[in-house]
């Protein structure tokens, strides 16, 4: 049942989606768990908690759905038996996590994407076999192989999603 405070909040055309969700939550009339919205396809939204309202999902190729993301590992391997792909290529980690890239950078030069939601800790790397980057701010940080991928998320590319 929607109460008068909720109706007033819903009628106000000035509130944006996050403000509307917060107002409804505070008024005690949110009917079900909040969902994170994907701009490309809101049908595939995943439940989130009220404390996660500040960061919504952003579809960045090649990671266009939340189900594309893997957690648990902090190492991204590439090359060798993996060929021209990163594994995992869509990784979700918490702020403060150090992510390790492992593979032949001379064959697969790593580049940070310009599509990142903030300054990327990933630096261009063309030598060696192991490089670590610390992710201190929440956001989305795409990357790609300069030889086999592109900044738009095509080919050998990936995204690291950092959550609080």
Describe this structure in words.
By secondary structure, the chain is mainly β. The chain folds into 2 domains: 4-52, no CATH class; 66-163, Immunoglobulin-like. The chain is built from 2 helices and 10 strands. It has a 4-stranded mixed sheet with strand order 4-3-6-8, with no helix packed on it. A hairpin with a 5-residue loop joins strand 9 and strand 10 (155-163). The longest helix is centred in the first third of the chain and has 10 residues, at 17-26. The protein is globular. The chain starts with a helix and ends with a strand. Mean pLDDT is 77; it is low at 1-53.
CATH architecture of the largest domain: Sandwich
CATH topology of the largest domain: Immunoglobulin-like
Give the CATH H-level superfamily of the largest domain. Answer: Cupredoxins -  blue copper proteins
Please tell me how large the radius of gyration is.
Answer: 19 Å
Distance between the termini: 33 Å
Whole-number total of structural domains: 2
With strands numbered from the N-terminus, the spatial order across the biggest sheet is: 4-3-6-8
By DSSP (H or I, 4+ residues per run), the number of helices equals: 2
Give the gist of this structure.
The protein is mainly β. The chain has helices at residues 4-11, 17-26, and strands at 35-36, 46-47, 75-78, 86-87, 90-94, 97-102, 110-112, 130-135, 139-149, 155-163.
Features:
four-stranded mixed β-sheet; disordered N terminus; Immunoglobulin-like; 11% helix; mainly beta; 164 residues; globular; 10 strands
């Amino acid at each position: 049942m929607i109460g008068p405070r909720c109706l007033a909040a819903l009628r106000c055309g000035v509130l944006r989606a996050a403000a509307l969700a917060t107002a409804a939550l505070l008024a005690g009339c949110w009917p079900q768990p909040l969902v994170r919205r994907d701009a490309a396809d809101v049908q595939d939204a995943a439940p989130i908690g009220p404390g996660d309202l500040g960061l919504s999902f952003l579809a960045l190729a090649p990671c266009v759905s939340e189900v594309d993301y893997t957690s648990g590992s902090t190492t991204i391997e590439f090359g060798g038996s993996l060929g021209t792909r990163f594994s995992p290529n869509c990784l979700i980690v918490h702020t403060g996590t150090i992510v390790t890239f492992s593979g032949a950078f001379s064959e697969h030069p790593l580049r940070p994407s310009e599509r990142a939601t903030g300054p990327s800790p990933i630096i261009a790397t063309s030598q060696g076999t192991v490089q670590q980057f610390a992710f201190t701010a929440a956001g989305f940080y795409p990357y790609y192989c300069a030889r086999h991928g592109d900044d738009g998320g095509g080919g050998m590319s990936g995204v690291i999603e950092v959550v609080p």
